[in-house]
Write a structure and sequence with these properties.
- This protein is of the alpha/beta class and about 400 residues long.
- It folds into two domains: about 10-135 and about 345-385, nicotinate phosphoribosyltransferase (Alpha-Beta Barrel), CATH 3.20.140.10; about 140-340, nicotinate phosphoribosyltransferase.
- It is about 45% helix and about 15% strand.
- A six-stranded parallel beta sheet has the order 5-4-9-8-7-6.
- Strand 10 and strand 11 form a beta hairpin.
- The chain is globular, with a radius of gyration of 20 Å.
- It catalyses: 5-phospho-alpha-D-ribose 1-diphosphate + nicotinate + ATP + H2O = nicotinate beta-D-ribonucleotide + ADP + phosphate + diphosphate.
Length: about 400
Amino acid sequence: MIITSLLDTDLYKFSMMQVVLHHFPAAQVEYQYKCRTPDINLRPYIDEIRAEIHGLCQLRFTREELDYLGSLRFIKSDFIDFLELFHLPERCIHVAEGKEAGEIAITVKGPWLHTILFEIPVLAIVNEVYFRNTKRHPDLEEGRARLQSKMSLVVDDPSMVDFRVAEYGTRRRFSKAWHQEVVATMKSTMGKMFAGTSNVALARQHAVLPLGTMGHEYLQACQALGPRLRDSQVFALEVWAKEYRGDLGIALSDVYGTNAFLRDFDMYFCKLFDGARHDSGDPFVWGERMIEHYRANRVDPRTKTLVFSDSLTFPRAIELARRFAGRCRVSFGIGTNLTNDLGHQPLQIVMKMVRCNGQPVAKVSDAPEKTMCDDPAYLAYLRQVFELPPLPVGQ
């Protein structure tokens, strides 16, 4: 089986899941899968994908895995007690042929608390099933050469001594085996420049730091769970602060775009949160705006961390590190460019929440192509509420 441990997922799934347990245990949600890469035919492998998902749903946390999670400072004992009984419910996931040629449709529907862990391993399954059938003899030496060349850009440059990069590529990895090799190689080659990995199983295996805080789905769900739509972003940040009391303090900034984020991220949040994460739009513009915003709120940006994680490459990360050196703390999360760069086109696949408690939810972001919502009327209303310009015709 591709997934052999429920820890083989990103840390922010557990940090969000703990919030769900303590604050929204009755929430009902729906996720939908989407492949953004054109002309990809996954239908020949649909039974293989179903079999892998069936295996995923048989997994339970082991005592050793629970002990590891419990050793993380922000994980609470009652959450560990819940995970001891947890399994992914197979009745909540449906895999079928999609409407367009070659498409498959994956839908997850059920209690948020019991379905939140589906996304990352299901995407990893789709990737690995596709590539092990279409790239039966991958050029691993090419992948190793590419990886070494990327790392050498910073390891061999004395000016990059403060550079920190994390691996964020679980959902779009070529394979689990290649993912393991990437993390092991980065740890042995980069030393303290390697900040850690978002993958909890690999962090445990290689004794590196597991990294992550919140994802888009958390702020999306709060559109349905908060007191009113306009206050949903503030509500989400306040509930997060209530749960973690200052820990896990990196706020995601692009669910409604930067303008809306900065309107809500007032002096209180500027001082409370350790920093913010960029995941769409121009990273240089975003970084400059964040620094200006901190200063306007009487906060020294040099005490705050800006995390860049949008389709990053090493050359782009180096540019960003040089631009913001000495002006703020910077950190980088690189995903697909690390775990699926062997000389072929990686899949651009996502699985996003589209409903919570029967109500549509949406992610807008600073990149129109990343917008995901299956209800155009709700999306138009959300854009109006958050004072966003209407989408261009045809999007």
